Amino acid sequence: MGRHFVIKKFCYICFWCLLFVFNSPVLGTEKVTLHLKWFHQFQFAGYYAAFEKGYYKEAGLDVEILESTIGIKGIHEKVIQSTGQYGIGSNELIKERYAGKPIVVLAVIFQHSPSVLFFKKSSNIQSIHDLVGKRVMLTPHMDEIVAYLKKERIDLSDLQILEHRFNPNDLIQGKVDAYSGYSTTQAYDFKKAGFPYVAYSPRVAGIDFYGDNFFTSEEEVRKHPERVKAFREASLRGWQYAMSHQEEIVDLIYEKYSKRNPKERLLFEAEQMTPLIQPILVEMGYMNPGRWKHINEVYAELGMLPRNINLKGFVYDPNPPANYEWIYYSFGIIVFSLAAVWLVQWKRLNKQYSENLKKQVEIRTEELKHSNEYLQVLNQSLLNTLKELTEAQDRLLASEKLAVLGQLAAGMAHELNTPLGAIVSSNHSLGDFLNNKIINIMDTIVNFDKEDSLRFHIVLEEGLKNQTFLEGKTERSIKKDLASKFSNIEKMDLYGKHMQLVVETGAYRIGDGLTQILESENSLKILETVASITTAYRSNQIIFVASEKATHVIKALKSYLVSDKDISNGETMVDLTFEMDTILSLYHYNLNKVIIKKSYLTEKKCLGNRDKLNQVWINLLNNALQAMSYNGTLEIKIQWVEPWVKVSIIDTGIGIADSIKEKIFDPFFTTKPNGEGMGLGLDICKKIISQTGGKIELENVEKGTCFSVWLPSAKT
């Protein structure tokens, strides 16, 4: 009895020691190093805030922040060289990962890259295609600019590439024709110098990359997961503080880190970063694996990376799924221990049986009693374990639902960013017109004589008729025709101001009447005045169209999110046509290359839970888009098949193999690569439809896949 007590006590102590080792927090202060990719400035404000506000110290971290004087060069090698190293990179990280460097992206700070290409506003470069043959300074590793040029079919060999000296005076003094930089910093230098400039962003060509990506090595994540998580959370907390207290952090940077930039420039940088980081619309540090795949696709289209590279382990997951292997190991140990105990007991009882049958019966009876009590305790323990596993399965189902909704929300910021960006840009143009130009325009018009006033009204009327934007190739063709037709008029030089303004105002459409305009001594003033007015009119039209688009997206999102009060109490009537159109509006960001075919053959409503049915449509639409790689034809058919309302979603994707058709509705069955799906989507859809009293089927089609949902119709 004493020996059994000692063994039991020893096992008890070992168990609690192991539990303490595996669950104890990081003790003491751990040294880590953060490598910035440029000089100290507001671009890295969040890390200064986390350090100065004590967020790193609270997490048990001693952080050293190192600035770079040579850009991003060498940072990747330093980070993967040893543990405890972190860095700030750009979108080149995906290329470095493909090249074999074990890099892990922890968080994204800029939801949109600030990289732009600057031109002088009054130069002969009026479009991106006019760069051919010109002198250009390109920042190393600014891949989004290179991708932008290639997408516009401009090869680097067509340009005069000069070494980037990071001196804005190179563009101001005309030493270079185009200059790549950040809209958050170089724009200040140009405005401060009174230099008129034009900034072209790769986003106008659909190249929307991340900016300033926070990364470390696979070894750091594997060996020090708690440190990685603590450092990431403290850094993002610092960013949240920095963006909410910009003036305070500007003073901090200037006083403690660097006086290289004046406070005015740092505050300008902070203001320009706000729409790029979007701290209110998007969770700080958020990144979407689908967005990284989009970046991979852009690189692939331009020959800079292969398609569909393996991104497993590249994107950090701060909340990985729970690991329940210890439950199975514990259960196995218990079973093995029971077997060992039973074997020992059996041998001992067999020996005692031969000596004293009566004593053996009494002992065995007593042992069976204790064994029965022990088995009751074990049975209760197994029931508790089963309950935990059931709860874990419910959490997995909820996680799948959130993952589906997360994919829907991923594109909302981009859908709203384009019209809002157009409104902001056009508003600046209108503000400049009202504040700086309108008085001069009024004075100019008043001083026109009767003939010049007539000429002005003719050009203005033509300029307001058509506000269509001319592409570079079309514009050059029009200029050549005008130069040939009016070769006898000295003013119509191919690269002169008159020629540019005639095209910009649309005066070339006047025909022979253009000669009368050009004969006036005030022809240049007439054209410049009309150009200013038409530019303001165009900005007004852009604001109108962009506002309509943003309003449409917000109404669709509101309609999708706001549920009827009756839904929580049970089934209600659902307008499938309205709900499907609402979801398609929200998915507009992913439908650029998809042809949508709507076949709404009935107006009958069905019975069901609107929110849950919307989850079904989102899941089926998302599967269809992924099967087509977001390029093909998607047909949505709603028809009346008495007594059902039948909804069919048909795509032209790769289809489903016959060998797995019977398994697609099984839970945890998936054909997607590891990390891209848990295989619960179709299982959830089937359960939702079954609860409604309907059914979901996979129907045969010539090409692609067709999922049909049969729902009970509502009585109207």
UniProtKB/TrEMBL annotation:
Show the catalytic activity: N(6)-(pyridoxal phosphate)-L-lysyl-[4-amino-5-hydroxymethyl-2-methylpyrimidine phosphate synthase] + L-histidyl-[4-amino-5-hydroxymethyl-2-methylpyrimidine phosphate synthase] + 2 Fe(3+) + 4 H2O = L-lysyl-[4-amino-5-hydroxymethyl-2-methylpyrimidine phosphate synthase] + (2S)-2-amino-5-hydroxy-4-oxopentanoyl-[4-amino-5-hydroxymethyl-2-methylpyrimidine phosphate synthase] + 4-amino-2-methyl-5-(phosphooxymethyl)pyrimidine + 3-oxopropanoate + 2 Fe(2+) + 2 H(+); ATP + protein L-histidine = ADP + protein N-phospho-L-histidine
What Gene Ontology terms describe what this protein does at the molecular function level?
metal ion binding; phosphorelay sensor kinase activity
Known EC number? 2.7.13.3
Q: In which pathway does it act?
A: Cofactor biosynthesis; thiamine diphosphate biosynthesis
Q: Which UniProt keywords apply?
A: Iron, Metal-binding, Phosphoprotein, Pyridoxal phosphate, Thiamine biosynthesis, Transferase
User: What GO biological process term is on the record, naming one?
Assistant: thiamine biosynthetic process
InterPro entries, A to Z: HATPase_C_sf, HATPase_dom, His_kinase_dom, HisK_dim/P_dom, HisK_dim/P_sf, NMT1/THI5, Sig_transdc_His_kin-like_C, SsuA/THI5
Q: Give the top-rank taxon of the lineage listed in the UniProt record for this protein.
A: Bacteria
Q: Does the keyword Phosphoprotein apply?
A: yes
Q: What class of enzyme is it?
A: transferase
Answer whether the UniProt record assigns the keyword Metal-binding to this protein.
Answer: yes
Please give the family membership noted in the entry: Belongs to the NMT1/THI5 family.
Quaternary structure and partners: Homodimer.
Q: Which PANTHER family match?
A: 4-AMINO-5-HYDROXYMETHYL-2-METHYLPYRIMIDINE PHOSPHATE SYNTHASE THI11-RELATED
Its annotated function is as follows:
Responsible for the formation of the pyrimidine heterocycle in the thiamine biosynthesis pathway. Catalyzes the formation of hydroxymethylpyrimidine phosphate (HMP-P) from histidine and pyridoxal phosphate (PLP). The protein uses PLP and the active site histidine to form HMP-P, generating an inactive enzyme. The enzyme can only undergo a single turnover, which suggests it is a suicide enzyme.
Designated name of the protein: histidine kinase
Source organism per UniProt: Leptospira terpstrae serovar Hualin str. LT 11-33 = ATCC 700639
